[in-house]
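Quick start: what a row looks like.
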Amino acid sequence: MRVADLFCGGGGFSAGFKMAGFDIAYGIDNDSNACKTFKHNFPQAQVDEMDIRDLDYRELPEFEVLIGSPPCVDFSKGNNDRGFSLAFINLFLDIVEETKPDYWVMENVPDIMTLNFFSMGLRFKFPNIQILEAYRFGAPTVRRRFFGGKYPKTPIPPNYAVVKDYININRPGHRQPYKDHVYRKINPNKPLFTICAQRISNDRYLLPNGSSLSVCEYATLQGFPDWFVFPVSRSQTQRQVGNAVCPPVAAAIGKAIMHDHNGTEDEPDYAEVTIEKQSKRTVNSKSKRIDQE
């Protein structure tokens, strides 16, 4: 099945669907660095670097599944100047209506459900709504996100991922001068705090030995597979990782869709939607994951 990704960013959402066996056919974003990363990891896809408001949906390649993550800064708790614009969400829903995909999924922050605009006008447009936590699906980070659309309900596995199973917490590194009001110490036996672009850029999280996480370790904890490469600068990689849909969560949704598409009546079980652990590894700023500039 073919996937089109709106507001694609670097491609975390599409990476998950690729992990679930889908073909990535299309991506669109107005950020040149994001499009560079998307093109690198999905070379077969058509990628448009443009304002989505100028998109002519009639010129899109064929696809069966539409996914997208409209900008969420208006609703995010990380934005101190929050507004209540639903323009891009409405645009996404308009494209759904015009293209009529077999399945579609929109991701956003959970706070969207607290808006009167949503409860009064948009709720009925989402056949299925779930709040999914990344650490339940193989990305050891406490990242809760809204997923709504026309797709099968995704079972939530009973177990959860923790930091020490995904990175080497005892690797050497530069010790930061710890300050309670600046840094947060990582508990390796729990999922990491929610990863976001601002916190990555400030090196806020410290391992038990006092060293900061590398951007590549952030990518691993966010659930990016080993094959995913960021051919951009460190700062752009930080931004793309922090803004990404966690690939393992997207993969779980994709597997549920594939299960439904193949005509199996029963709901997929945990084994079919849980992503296997990535190989435990040490990664650093010289990893092939990112381009050094």
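That is the whole record. Residues 2-155+246-273 form a domain with the Rossmann fold fold (CATH 3.40.50.150). The beta strands are 2-6, 23-29, 46-49, 65-68, 103-108, 128-133, 144-150, 184-185, 205-206.
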